[in-house]
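Dear Dr. V.,

Thank you for agreeing to look over these. As mentioned in my earlier message, I'm a first-year student in the group and I'm still getting used to reading structure tokens, so any feedback on how I've presented them would be very welcome. I ran two proteins. I've put each sequence directly above its structure. The first is here:
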Amino acid sequence: MLTKVLLILLGFPIILPSRIEETHVESEMGPCAHHDDVYGPKPQDPKKKLPSEEIKPTVIDTHRDLGKLPAATQILDSILNNSDYKLRPGIGEKPTVVTVELSVNTLGPISIPDMPLYSQETMCVHKLSCASESLFKEYSIDITLYQTWYDERLRYNGSFESFVLNGNMMSQLWIPDTFFRNSKEIRVYSVTVHSQVVRIHRDGKVLYTDRMTIDAGCSFHMLKFPMDSHSCPLSFSSSSYPENEIMYKWKDFKLEINENNSWKLLQFDFTGVSNETKIISTMAGDFMVITLFFNVSRRFGFNAVQNYVPSSMTTIMSWISFWIKKESAPARTSLGITSVLTITTLGSCTQKNFPRESYMTALDVYIAICFLFCLCALVEFAVLNFLIHNHTRSRASPRLRYPPTRARDLTPTRTHAKQQQQEDIFMYDFEESGEESDEEDGPSCPAQQSLNPSLTQRRRSCCRICKYLCVVRSCDGSFWQQGRLFIHIYRLDNYSQVIFPVTFIFFNVLYWVICFNL
């Protein structure tokens, strides 16, 4: 009996833990663990992680990584604390030399600002003749400005080659007060951060970079328009430091001209760039000014199609009247008037989108000459019509004539009686117009004077200009007779058919030679 009790007491601790463990597993799996018809993956133990999800410990060298950052912070704090942004480098010892370099991102467009004439005059404060001889325009340019100088206060010893500071640190450094003298508006980029960047080198060299868009003024001399070329300046200097304190030095500037430049010059072509340095004296002192000139030339294609070709064609069309009969007065008159009005309209349209100037441009001269040719073509027909109808007599025109008297009848005793008879008696003599009438009563030509000497006395009663004209239709005389120039009125259209085209061609040759070599 005692033996059985001892065996029971020894087996109870072994059975009890196993049952407790089975009960704990059942409680965690729940009643669903006994069902085999459950779809989807079986739930995993949340406390158990997969091998791929296990976090591997990373060894961090805290002493090595934090050693650079405190050193950089210490160096930067030391150079900023030792630097006084209110004073320029080398004050009282030597002038600060600022080396300037410029990169052009975009250039253009060049436009005429919407401003009255009096505001244009106020813009030209440096040129007294600006308001009368030039046109004030403005252009836009997107640039990146690089300024380099040395500041001994920013030198440091360390393993860092340079420090790059953004625009938030500008207030703790001395920056040259460079401004653009002919600018009207400057827009600084601030997307996504401010475009101002400063790089401080170990030897105290400071590089300041800034990107901006400038609307600057430019004076245009339009005398050669539309074959004009211009130089748009971009000048900058210090606003408060004279020459003995700040000196600007221009670095070699080379601007490449290629088709990939996203420039908006529109009706201009970029031809090159140049620069100059000069000293300007003011009440505040002598300031060094650096000016960069962007040379542009106007494209000729647009003005050739819109102005020169229509004007030339209208002038040539006005010469068609020389091949129209003299009797077709309505046709010739309407053609001449239409040509004159067309040239006038072309001149007005040219000036519509062009600013008013006190002088004539090359295009104005060309249109004025074309207008003069069209007007002369109309006047030629008027002169021809006037000379023909005023120096010839109409058909069946009456003439009063006294009866012929003989010399023997005019004795002293019968003179009074004969005069009384002539006062009471007269007769009509009708003369027919035509070649015979022209030969007798019109101004004669030298070719026919040799055949009819009796007409010489009658020619003396003609006006002075008639001595150089011949209105005889069948005149066979030459253009030059008896050392005198004779114009055959009936051949005036033939003269015009040659004189007008030859003169217009000569004018065009002279015009283009002068314009391209002026």
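The second protein is here, in the same arrangement:
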Amino acid sequence: MKRKSTSDIASFFIKKSGSGETQQSVSSEPNVVVESEDTIGVSEQASQVESEREHDKTEAEHDSDAQTLAASESAVLQDSVEQVAEKEVDNQARQDLANAVLSVPGPTDISQSRDEGPKQPQLKLFPRTFQGNRRRSFMKEWYSKQKWIEYSQSKDSAYCYACRHFSLPSSGNSVFTSEEGFRNWKKATYKDGGFVGHAKSESHCNAMLAWAEYNKVTAGKCSLSASLNAEYNKLVRENREYIKTVGETLLLTATQNIGQRAHNETEGQNKGNFLSIMELLAKHDQTVKRKMTCQRNATYLGHNTQNKMIDCLAEMVRSSIITEVKQSEVFSIMVDETKDISKKEQMSFLVRYYYNGSICESFLTFEAAERLNAAALSQKIIEILQKYGLDYRNHLVGQAYDGASVMSGKNRGVQARIKSDAPLAFYVHCNAHCLNLVLVDSVKCIPEAYCFFSLLQKLYVFVSGSYVHQRWLEVQREMFQGPPRELQRLIEIRWACRYKACKTVKDRLPAIMRLLKEI
């Protein structure tokens, strides 16, 4: 719809006001009112027309912006489509090139990749076909004259290995790269045809050069890989020899029952038996010397590594013992508790069995004894047997402990509890403990011996006092070299302690006499 201008609207209202002159004769007041209302209407219409024009202008600007945005989006979309199309063309070109390189014509009984090499079957008789006036066939002597020849038994044809795998896509077609191959044996040895003619072609020469370069690269990679493998194998052998030396040194110190480490292995000349032996070996073995002095941290000389290796050696010995016990079928156990230097109760566990024509007695393990009642000790023994896979219910035939009531109790002792699970486990009071009790009771029957050992026990109690004990140590340092000794306490169940007590009194008798005189 066509909008009217402001002047047209104004003339319309003027005409309308002229036609109302007949009404002015009736009253002047209404005429004034009518004229004012018409003027106000004209102003309002003019404002409305101006606002509509501004609105149209704004819409036109928005339409222009929208067209510009649509044009830019269309351009971006067009660019994206062109880029995608270019990428697809590039990918397709690459794929076509790869297919051209990787696609190998010919039957499946000849080489299908560059890594296979020419297929040259050595047949006694090749198939004969009529060519010319006689029957002809492929000759295996041609392999030695032309290294690139490969023969297909299914097609009875010859092919060029170099051209099939190394020729360029633009080299053109040849009978030696076709699906059917070359089989005109009559012209095979012609000077200007057959194998010789093909060998003189430019495409074949380029393919042979590419094949030669490929062989060089492959040989270089193989030689580099072989060198790396040789170095790696050499390093592995050296590490194994070094670990073997460390393990044998630890085994030596363990079997000889000598200490391994010193108090301070970083300073001073005495670094302990283990490090001293290793340094001695390093003087005569360059591999050991190089491993010990290298900048790396894998020298395997730290105390944590030593403990781990000792645990491994102990596990190997333990496994050997378990194997022998299982082969002997029946076995017996000997268990005793004792306190270590840190005052912790430990259970020593031994097995006794018949193996290889003799009776064997082997220490198996130490286990911490948290509680010393019969139930806890018997449960600990059963756990050890189960841990090492020993069938105690059927193959345990004996158990030996000391004479303590908690171990030898007839009804509630350890031996009774074990026998309830293993009926064949006959209890035997340990012969060593029995001998100890016999010796103690025998000595009590001899007054002189009884008085002597009573004197040793009283002397131990006297010297154990705080002031006397401190003075006892000082007197020993003044009179003797080396660390001071302690007097031994006499225990009835351990006869060996009497020997140690007598030896200490004999060796330190002058110090004992001086101490008693001073006190």
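From my reading of the second output: The chain has 18 helices and nine strands. Residues 1-47, 96-102 have pLDDT under 50 and may be disordered. Does that match how you would interpret it?

Kind regards,
E.
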